[in-house]
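Box 3.1 A note on notation
Throughout this textbook, protein chains are presented in two layers. The first layer is the amino acid sequence; the second is a token string describing backbone geometry. Keep the layers aligned when reading.
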Amino acid sequence: MAKQCEICGKKPVTGHKVSHSNIKTKTRNFPNLQKLKAVVSGKVQRIKVCTRCIRSGWVQKAA
């Protein structure tokens, strides 16, 4: 399974770590994904969701 939020589609972004001597090294920043049981189309499923979607209430957690 990819490192991607199943609700909003947030995925890793790339960038550069820049040293004092201005040497650029590639980096990847990953979203804060959590595995949780959620109600998806009436069924309980285990999905990977970013914390922003959980906090915003876009995911209905299973009891």
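Residues 35 and 54 are 11 Å apart (CA to CA). The domain at 1-63 is CATH 2.30.170.40 (Ribosomal Protein L24e; Chain: T;).
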